[in-house]
Amino acid sequence: xxxxxxxxxxxxxxxxxxxxxxxxxxxxxxxxxxxxxxxxxxxxxxxxxxxxxxxxxxxxxxxxxxxxxxxxxxxxxxxxxxxxxxxxxxxxxxxxxxxxxxxxxxxxxxxxxxxxxxxxxxxxxxxxxxxxxxxxxxxxxx
Length: 142
Fold this sequence. Notes:
By secondary structure, the protein is mainly alpha-helical. The protein folds into two domains: 25-109; 112-142, no CATH class. The chain contains eight helices and two strands. It has helices spanning 5-13, 30-43, 48-57, 59-64, 66-76, 81-89, 94-106, 128-139, and strands at residues 114-117, 120-123. The two termini are 25 Å apart.
């Protein structure tokens, strides 16, 4: 999906025709909560999407030390680390992250990636052509 997503953003999101909505899932337990809070703290510095990518790039490291991995990712994307550390330590976004997870699971989302396009759901990484077809159909009201 990391290969397809940039093209989807370029073709559909930047033009304002499509919104990409991210929901936090708790697939790594407490580590997921920490990483979700960290990504929301990065959003305070307008770096949510960059942080999300940096976290995915460190996926294996996050199993052993999620806090260090999150901080490494924050440094990589150029965050003000003092502000980031304070935000994470305060669990500033913990309740928002938990509510987001509850909403996702209530909608039947248990793993990622999942895409709702119109009334169609795509589960798992797919070729760009699959997304283009579904998005075009939804935009045309078909």
